[in-house]
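Researcher: Next sequence.
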Amino acid sequence: MSHKASSPHTLDLFEYTLTIPTPPSEPAPASAKPPVLASLSDIELAQQLGQLLTEVQRRMEKGRGRRPELEAAVQHTRLSLDQLVPRPAKQTRSSRSGKTSSVLQEGQRKAVRAALLAGVAPTQVAKHFGLSLAAIRKVLAEAT
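Model: Next structure:
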């Protein structure tokens, strides 16, 4: 039996055919699915999040051995939630400069006076103690 006599659809048992594997069909992107979570109200979304966290915690505590998928998801979630939590504004020198001499502690007043009497420029004293120039002038006025 020759190869020419066989039909193109019938393969010889000993014939080698080159087949190119087709890539597995990829799941549809998440955006193609109807946005179930996007349609929830804030209250419903918060409830879902609470239930999800409760279930993850239950599985992590109940599970024996390592749970790499859940551990990775928990770590990723922690990082994401850290970014969502508003951070308190850092206190800067400008916010501390609002202090008046009446708010200054006696020890700090004495240190400011000593620095001024030693000949340090008022601007340098203000920078060093994180005070406004007005507060330095008040301390200087009290000393006289």
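Model: The longest helix spans residues 42-62. The CA atoms of residues 97 and 132 lie 5 Å apart.
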